[in-house]
Amino acid sequence: METPEIQSSNTTAWWPSITVAVLTILFGLAALFWPGMTAITLIYLVSIFLVIHGLVRLVGGFFAIGKNRYWWLVSLLGLVGIGVGAFILSNVNLALATFILVLGLALIAQGVLEIAAASTDSENSANESNRTLRWVVGLATILAGILILMQPVVLGTAFIWILGLYALIAGILELIIALEARSTMHSLSV
Q: What's the pTM value of the predicted model, to 2 decimals?
């Protein structure tokens, strides 16, 4: 039987992923339903989202220390998000083309790290579908980054829709992964 401290740490380790998933879904819906946002508003929204997303990932990585030997990949994802978000916030007057470049490259880097985490985390994955979903999220993130880099500034609405669609799909997949992790942790603690 596990002690209450162990049960508490097992049941709280999934909340950062659910938080990230919900934030990602909400951001995706906002981008899809309000594509007429000005570029400056979009830059602020994406920057704040990236910082919050990064902080939650970073905290989630620290919660995984001792439970997952690849906790540092999750933390690295968080640091990338915080760094890119802070850079964009401190340089709001960037041209939209520079913003698109930075965001596209950040998404590609995040996708590569997500795939690396899914590929190397064989001992801590509850099942193969969890790893597969993490691969899909990583591939979708890379694809979104490439599509964003390919969109000319003239197609600003298309850029916002691609970003919103990516966020909505990735958020739903992240939510499924987080709920599976919560279910697995719950069954292990019983």
A: 0.58
